[in-house]
Known about the structure:
Layout: H1 2-28, H2 37-63, H3 73-95, H4 101-115
Amino acid sequence: MNDYLLYGAGGLGIVVALVHGHIGRTRLLPPLTGIPAVHRRVLGAVFQLSTLYWFVGGLVLMAVPVLPDYLPRPFAVYGVAFLFFSGAVGNFWATRGRHIGWVLLGLSTVMAVLGA
């Protein structure tokens, strides 16, 4: 059961990352024409960096169940759970709870911790 929670948490993290990256690149970042180009590039890089973190975090959670027993499974799971949790808190704070991202990252955090 624990492994299935980790697979689910990792899969959800990957889906959130892919949707985040696609929507950001196609709908959020292109309309930013009133700011200097250097600021658009920095904003785009930071935006996609969070996408990369969530994607890699999802891959790590999905890989943990098949790792050898001598590797520190809880360290990897709790590290990624902290990454997802901090993303959820930041999303909730920035959007005042009006964005579904914090719910999905929070759900993935809970699933990861329960699967540890």
